[in-house]
Amino acid sequence: MNHTEILDRLNDYADHSLSVEEQSEVEKHLQTCEPCSREMQKLDNLLKQTQGLAGAIEPSRELWSRIAPMLGPQEPKLIPLPSAFHRSGRWGFEYNSWVRYSTRIAAALVVAVGGFWLVSRPSPRAWEVARLEGTPTIGDQHLTLGGQLAVGDWLKTDSFSRAQLTIADIGHAEIGPNSRLRLVATRETEHRLEMTQGQMSAWVSAPPRIFIVETPSGTAVDLGCSYDLFVNESGNGTIHVTSGEVSLESDGKESFVPTGAMCETRRGFGPGTPYSDFSSEVMRKALRQFDFEKGSAKSVELILQNAANVDAITLWHLLQRVDEPARESVYDRFATLIPPPKQVTKEGILRLDKNMLEDWLNEFAARSFSLKRLF
Amino acid sequence: MLAERLTMNQPPAQKPIIGLTDTVARAQQGDRKAFEHLYREHVGRVYAVCVRILANGPKAEELTQDVFVRAWQMLPSFRGEAAFSSWLHRLAVNVVLVHFRTEKRREARVTAVEDLTIFDRAQNSGSPGENVDLEHAIANLPPQARTIFVLHDIEGYKHQEIAEQLGLAIGTSKAQLHRARKLLMEVLNQ
């Protein structure tokens, strides 16, 4: 390495990321080259000083008093079911078979009993609404403290108001400014809202498909989760799932949005292709072209060029949305990023075998980056 | 098809999980006092990572609040396989990065750092004056370079992990770190 190359690699030297030979070459050079040695000294000082920074910085004292009232109910533990979805047995592979099956039977019993309890208990006929800010309205009634939202009632907030909505006895939602919502149905087996515009952060603890929100461009079906939903004045929307999963549906089209992913919906097009919180801007732009601007061939090319590991959920959906000639290219790119499990074949995926698609989804869902990875 | 992904409440745990402290176990069972104790013990570290990445005191408090509300909600699923502090710290980094990603474009246009006196509250082990200067210099770095510097040089994350979490190439993560260090050296050696 010459002087310039060494100067360029001082950071790598400081981080011990050079090979033993390179490390020793830089060391020798530093003993004889004054400019490099000076630069290294500055870098050393910075790193030492950085190491001396405090591990903790105290926030304002009143922060806890703001957090404490927000501690609502805790989320239940989520456990995988012995459903077709997990037929690959990823989560139980280390157990011998009787343990695996007895665990599955026990889990199924818990779900059966719990599910029966959840759907058979009586649900409130109207939902509680609490004013958080400004003056939300139910019908033509202005809320000073709170009120009740009955089936058919509209809850509205203006640009200065927010409200907290209790979703029957299964969860709650914060309704942001400029929102319009109507309670369509509330019964044991279904709680349904219509949201024509606005923003909502919902947290739900219930079996899948119990809490449903209709928007002008798609229907959000809760699969056990929390999420943020935005719908603009034109009825176009975006959903961001912060835990669990949501299915966005419209006219037979379905997008599956897991934790840490987003999905846009457009009037006349329905739900687009989901993407990760960490997908690049280029990727998001190309997806919008593909989903809503009919820029198919070129946008698919762009998506494949820019796809990274975080885009697994996007490519999985794309397999099912592109024409057959393009499906092979999507398969090849996807397989490079996330090799399919043994039982999944290229031929099976090209003919959109549902079981194989699910198996592949299981494969990357188990390792994809999301808050779930913490557990 | 996807509706088959059923989830449901799990019955109460039969016995304490190995690796969980009493305080964490009590908080998992809904004991708010125990959770407040955990908050007092860990809030400084959570706030530090938030404020250093965001360089905005009020926004960092808002996200610290989100981290603890999320931690409370998700605590029943914490299995105790890692230390609670690591789990919480990881959660904090996740929350900040998701926010950073969402707000990146908007915040990129806001270069002014509002209130740097927050760093005066840091209990630094080195020379207090020098460290406050360094904190201020970090806060004034461009957002992406600052995030990567904080994650790599302060929080100890590897480039591969940073690149994965920020959706960048590893080379970009390295280049941004070197840029951050260069800018900091220039400021500190003026």
Describe the protein.
The complex is a heterodimer of chains A (375) and B (190). Chain A is an alpha+beta fold and 375 residues long. Helices cover 35% and strands 26% of the residues of chain A. Chain A has twelve helices and 18 strands. Chain A has an 18-stranded mixed β-sheet that branches. In chain A, α3 crosses α4. The longest helix of chain A is centred in the N-terminal third of the chain and has 24 residues. In chain A, 38% of the residues are buried. The C terminus of chain A is likely disordered. By secondary structure, chain B is an all-alpha fold. The N terminus of chain B is likely disordered. Classes of the chains: A alpha+beta (375), B mainly alpha (190). Chains A and B meet through α4, α5, α6 and β13 of A and α2, α3, α4, α5 and α7 of B.
Sheet of most strands of chain B: none
Question: Multimeric state of these chains?
Answer: heterodimer
N-end to C-end Cα span of chain B? 63 Å
Structural class assignment of chain A: alpha+beta
Task: Let me know the number of strands of chain A.
Answer: 18
First-last Cα distance of chain A: 45 Å
Report the average pLDDT across residues of chain A.
81
Shape of chain B: elongated
Structural class of chain B: mainly alpha
Number of helices of chain B: 8
The chain pair forming the largest interface, with residue counts per chain, is: A-B, 73 and 75 residues
Task: Report the C-alpha radius of gyration of chain B, rounded.
Answer: 19 Å
Provide the helix percentage of chain B: 55-70%
Radius of gyration of chain A: 26 Å
N-to-C SSE series of chain B? HHHHHHHH
